[in-house]
């Protein structure tokens, strides 16, 4: 006839409910791809519940409905609407069969209206929770698909920009090198020495330009793969930036240096690239004869490097975008050459030192590109 002691029934039913709650929590924390495991847990819980349904002395009013509710809710949360309805169907058949068995064969009083009401309530739970879960899954799927499409669009834009850089900016110095070297090869004994020296100078400048662009692309790849680390050492920042300025081809611009005597733990070659790229960027967007200001100052336990020009400045909407790979400011199509990742490397090299890069409006007009490097950095 089943359990005769209510306390034992209560303990057994409480154990089943607790077990299902634990398994539900475990399954909800598992990866969504583990759908097979989710289904197996729901099946096990459903079988356990139907086994208890068939125990004659089990009190359905107090315990069975709670257990059935737990299994239907579990099926809805883990597997969705269809699983919730199927689980409800199995439990309803078992529950109704148990009531009919007890009434017809054992003479146990039953409440058909109460049985029907509980079955309907469980169906409502299955439909509501299952529909909500399906809606949430559809919303997540849509958001995931939308994000994936946006990432693909960004990747496609970056690919197109990269191909433009490779096909145009890398091709130009290669064409110049090829043209001058071919002329030298064909007329080496006919050209006067000064013309030969001029051609060799063009070849050398274009080779250095090509080497710089390739190094930019390689460094960006190393940073993205996490294999580029700074080699820090105490460095006289004022002496370093003055040395860099003396080596840069200013192309008719005038660079004034205002540098405090400050020392910092930095990677000198990477700081050199930062300053070179900032000066080169200022040269691209200012006419010949323009003045470019380079300042080095201590600030907040670190060093600020600032390169200011008197060009057209940077619109607020572009100030963050400029530090993304292959992004350029207004007018770049007409006057700027290079790999398109110079400012991106400035930002990434600053981050390697535990610092950051940004751009502000320069006093009196133009742009002020700034880099903060901590004196005793914690590299990222």
Shape estimate: elongated
In terms of DSSP E residues, the strand content is: 5-15%
Strand order of the largest sheet: 2-4-5-7-6
CATH top level of the largest domain is: Alpha Beta
What would you report as the Rg, rounded to the nearest angstrom? 37 Å
Distance between the termini: 70 Å
Report the major sheet.
5 strands, mixed
* Helix-strand sequence: HHHHHHHEHEEHEEHHEE
Fraction in helix: 55-70%
Mean pLDDT: 77
CATH architecture descriptor name of the largest domain: 2-Layer Sandwich
Instruction: State the domain count.
Output: 3
Low-confidence segments, given as residue ranges, are 1-5, 32-36, 54-60
Annotated CATH topology of the largest domain: Heat Shock Protein 90
Task: Report on the architecture of this protein.
The protein is of the alpha+beta class. It folds into 3 domains: about 5-145, no CATH class; about 170-225, no CATH class; about 235-375, Heat Shock Protein 90 (2-Layer Sandwich). Helix content is about 60%, strand content about 10%. It has 11 helices and 7 strands. Helix 1 (about 5-30) packs antiparallel against helix 2 (about 35-55). The longest helix has about 60 residues, at about 110-170.
